């Protein structure tokens, strides 16, 4: 029986991946990266951190590409969108979190997003109180797809990785969680299942509520 669930945030709990994708694409196309290429880039950077994502862009644009400035412009576009339209919670998230709490399951967050931003997003959709622990992107050295964030989350919860379920929507996240030794589940958002996710994910669901079946 699993004792804990460690959730990614963007695209799993809050419906922000589509906003990120819109802003990455808009910014990339503004400097001449074709839309089809930006779609591929968005798949590759989802779930990653500054370091891993910088490598992706430099591979495409060259080593002299000023990724940090480009990233900041993308985040500015993201913030403008959120200020105007807000953030939505993903379907059935709160029901799922409530079910886990009622069954005594420990809950943690493992997100590449910085803590201040992550807390704001969880607060804005009213689910921050469900989490026993949080590990955020600015609190680790090696982000996804490295296993560090999931290992740290399990350590903070006081469980072994093989006693925990990881819930992810990105290839980087699935690689990270599976490397850490968690039972990795993909809940599909924008990125569709592929060879890597099928190899590394124990289950693929299209509704987050389906993870409750692992605890019944």
TrEMBL record:
<protein>
    <submittedName>
        <fullName>HAD family phosphatase</fullName>
    </submittedName>
</protein>
<dbReference type="InterPro" id="IPR036412">
    <property type="entry name" value="HAD-like_sf"/>
</dbReference>
<dbReference type="InterPro" id="IPR023214">
    <property type="entry name" value="HAD_sf"/>
</dbReference>
<dbReference type="InterPro" id="IPR006439">
    <property type="entry name" value="HAD-SF_hydro_IA"/>
</dbReference>
<dbReference type="Pfam" id="PF00702">
    <property type="entry name" value="Hydrolase"/>
</dbReference>
<dbReference type="InterPro" id="IPR023198">
    <property type="entry name" value="PGP-like_dom2"/>
</dbReference>
